[in-house]
Amino acid sequence: MRAYQVVYRAVPEPIMIRAGERPATAPSLVHPCAGYHAGISNSVGICHESGSIMALRFSWTTVDLANQLPGSWQQDILAVAAEADFREFPRTPVLSREAECVTRISRGRVHADQVRQDLPWLYQYYREYFVQLAQETCSERVAPARDDRYGIVLNVQRGDTMRFECHVDSNPLTGLLFCTDHPAGGGELVFAHDPAAADVDAIERDCSVIRPHAGHLAFFDGSKYPHYARPLRSAADVRVVAVMNLYTESRPESTRPAELNRHLYGQD
Question: Contact at 8 Å (CB) between 190 and 208?
Fold first, then answer.
């Protein structure tokens, strides 16, 4: 299963450019795995939607797996996502970067136990194949979560009123498999360049944007830069992503805040 293609990697070194301008020399791209086919999206490998001058701080790697997943992968996931737990979720302790006035956010989730039961192939991919891919983006050994309560879940948005909470991640490396396309727009994953951003407006003022493409698996460190998913633009649209917690030797699973587990599961 080595026929995957890296279609995008943002450049980790700080670069100063003016929005819309192409630098005289395109930044180099270094890949830890020989055999990757790489390309830079736009002029510097980043989608930036704010004003004139920016400093690139956040980076990610995207792998196109559309031809490497089971033939009915998308249909299987969408069928399970239709039975997601849709409700107003309270803000997440420790990790939330929402405005103080925001106490609940409407969204959907297929919890980890349901993913393991109803999508066993996805659970296995997370623990094996996806970890192998993640390893090629990281100089440290990468491991999946030992605790199956939060290893891999599906996040679901239905209609144009749901979004995902502004937050930072508790884990040092996240894998995110986009399961749907959104030609009408919306559903983008938006990362603040300012680690102190504490609400949607602050994130949107200076940000990087990852647009959903079904079959694309993105790896990033979301523990420093606040991020959220924009609402969809159509009341009939549905956005589904599989979100994976990954850990490293320097930041193992034992660093996950106990308060987070108590909030989600009622116990450590």
Answer: yes
Residue-wise DSSP of 191-246: EESSTT--SHHHHHHSEEEE---TTEEEEE--SSS-EEEPPBS-TT-EEEEEEEEE
20 domain residue, yes or no = no
CA distance 104 to 86: 12
Alpha-carbon span 195 to 224, nearest angstrom: 6
pTM for the model: 0.81
- Alpha-carbon distance of 78 to 212, in angstroms, equals 15
Question: Residue 253 gets which letter from DSSP?
Answer: G
Q: Quick check: is 22 in a domain?
A: no
Domain that holds residue 93: 5-12+32-265
- Residue-wise pLDDT for 119-168, tens only, equals 999 999 999 999 999 999 999 999 999 999 999 999 999 999 999 999 99
CA distance 220 to 37: 19
Q: What is the CATH number of the domain that holds 255?
A: 2.60.120.620
